[in-house]
From TrEMBL:
Organism expressing this protein natively: Phenylobacterium montanum
Source lineage: Bacteria, Pseudomonadati, Pseudomonadota, Alphaproteobacteria, Caulobacterales
Cited Pfam families: DLH
SUPFAM superfamilies on file: alpha/beta-Hydrolases (SSF53474)
InterPro entries assigned to the protein according to its UniProt record, in alphabetical order: AB_hydrolase_fold (IPR029058), Dienelactn_hydro (IPR002925), Dienelactone_hydrolase-like (IPR051049)
Protein name: Dienelactone hydrolase family protein
Residue span, Dienelactone hydrolase domain: 15-230
Molecular functions per Gene Ontology: hydrolase activity
Length: 232
């Protein structure tokens, strides 16, 4: 596995992306969609893990329009304050356009098998849902996506597989919002929904306050099985 960076160029400007490459000459790709802390060690670690599983993983800097190069943690009040400032300033529609450009770039990479999936966390979970409705991603996974309930009107655009991981005690996704998401998507053949009783937001974030090793491993195994099928 090797690591490097790529530059994604769009009509609005260019931004960087962290890339982890597998040992295989050809491999499917996965776009890793950041939380509100930027392309930090957690996101880079997810890319590295995916590369170890045989995927070409890329994590674009989606905050570049606000402040390029954000790399903070969830370990201090000051960083949380900064993260929420970035979240509130973030343009979701522009972010999805940047993900689409990232998909195009990595699909054209000489190491890519042409199949490209996406996985997102928190804010990235919402963006993963919108990646499924607005781009040609071959399969998308959303971990505890915040705000998906506000975009359920786009569900008719779903044509490729989508998996949702929902924390039942998510402080940022109220029970009512969870019910709307489940009711709005449960009868769609492309969608698989998993809920996690007792789990709070970011239960799969290593080192986070609400990290749960058992349920994180369960969710990650489900994601691995999903990608093996969707990106085959």
């Amino acid at each position: 596995m090797t690591q490097n960076r790529l530059t994604v160029t769009t009509p609005a400007g260019s931004f960087g992306a962290y890339v982890a490459r597998p040992s295989a000459a050809k491999a499917p790709a996965v776009v890793v969609i950041q939380e509100i802390f930027g392309v930090n060690a957690v996101m880079r670690g997810i890319c590295d893990d995916l590369a170890g599983q045989g995927y070409l993983a890329i994590c674009p800097d989606l905050f570049w329009r606000i402040e390029p190069g954000i790399d903070i943690t969830d370990q201090s009040d000051a960083e949380w304050k900064k993260a929420f400032e970035l979240y509130n300033a973030f343009n979701v529609d522009a972010g999805v356009e940047d993900i689409a450009a990232t998909i195009d770039l990595i699909r054209a990479d000489k190491q890519c098998s042409a199949k490209v999936g996406a996985v997102g966390f928190c804010l990235g979970g919402l963006l993963a849902f919108l990646t499924a409705t607005r781009t040609d991603s071959d399969g998308s996974v959303a971990y505890y996506g915040v705000g998906i309930d506000k975009y359920l009107g786009e569900a008719d655009r779903l044509t490729r597989p989508l998996m949702l991981h929902i924390a039942e005690e998510d402080q940022f996704v109220p029970k009512a919002a969870q019910a709307l998401i489940i009711d709005g998507l449960k009868n769609r053949a492309q969608v698989t929904i998993h809920t996690y009783p007792g789990r709070d937001h970011a239960f799969a974030r290593k080192g986070g306050e609400h990290y749960d090793e058992v349920d994180a491993q369960t969710a990650n195994q489900r994601t691995a099985t999903f990608f093996k099928s969707a990106l085959a």
